[in-house]
Amino acid sequence: MDETRKPTLIASVQRALHLMEVVASHPSGAPAKQLAREAGLPLATAYHLLRTLAHEGYAMRLPDGVWVLGDRVQSLHGRSRTQQLLARVRPTLVALRDELGAACYFGMHVDDEIRLIDVADGPRAPRVDVWVGFDESAHATALGKCMLGQLDEDRRRDYLARHPLVDLTPHTITEPARLLSTLSSPAGLSLDREEYALGTGCAAVPVTDAAGAAVGALAVSCRTGKLTRIERSVDRMHARAAELQRTLTFTTTG
């Protein structure tokens, strides 16, 4: 097989993408004739492409006749940033999964909620069965408790007022005062001992940004019998959390 053979390219897609680049180069918009000229396209072709892009939400014609990018471009950009974050976070999670033989999780504060961002698991390190979303069970998971501990008192009370402490297992902490007393740990390690799911334990450490402010948490889950060994690996978890901090700094500033 000839590996040097050029791939089959769709010329109309190339023209549309190039035209979008030209539209984006004019923050205040530009008329179709100018866009066609700069894109090296016949005016009729440019009109057809612009109308198609407008129909799909990727371009918009303003009342004065100039063309600008459409709202779907911003939506696409937002999803792209999420994918970029996953691409940079995943290697650290996979590395810790392989080191500890346990599924690894990364969560962040997003719009005053606790969100699970990514999970690295495998046949020998299965993830916990998420039957109740992490954003609704922060009180019962190490990941959630670690992130609750990062909030100031007002934000923590607001969060708990919006998320009842539901008992998921006989071990779930449902008394606010008792929960709050478990949120600080000298070693920076939060634990879940069968509070979310019977037979499963979890440990989590905070992830900070470049300024040292906590923005999320790195966690691992395992069978209850392995939790003590995971606790002894807290230094390894903190080292991987530091990697994530550098990743987040690069993602934010890059």
From TrEMBL:
Q: What superkingdom does the record give?
A: Bacteria
Q: Note the InterPro entries from the entry.
A: GAF-like_dom_sf (IPR029016), HTH_MetabolicPath_Reg (IPR050707), Tscrpt_reg_IclR_C (IPR014757), Tscrpt_reg_IclR_N (IPR005471), WH-like_DNA-bd_sf (IPR036388), WH_DNA-bd_sf (IPR036390)
Q: Which UniProt keywords apply?
A: DNA-binding, Transcription, Transcription regulation
UniProt protein name: Helix-turn-helix domain-containing protein
- According to the entry, every stretch annotated as the HTH iclR-type domain falls at 10-71
Q: Which residues form a coiled coil?
A: none
Return the SMART domains for the record.
Answer: HTH_ICLR
Keyword match Methyltransferase: no
Domain IclR-ED, by residue range, is: 72-254
